[in-house]
Amino acid sequence: MDKVGRKLERIVKNTGSKPSFLLTFTGKGSRIEKTFEPEISISLGCHYEIAFTSLETYFSIPNIDKGNNILTVGKIGDKVFKEIKIEPGCYGLLDLNKEITRMLKEFGGLMENAVSFEPNYSTFKCVMVLKAGFQVDFTAKDSLRQILGFDEKVYKADKGAAKRIESEHVVNIMKVNSIFIHCDLVSGSYVNGRPSPILYSFFPMADPGDKIIVEPNEYIYLPIELDVIRHMTVWLTDQELNPINLREETLTIGLHLRSC
Question: Among 135, 166, 197, where does a domain finish?
Answer without folding.
Answer: 166
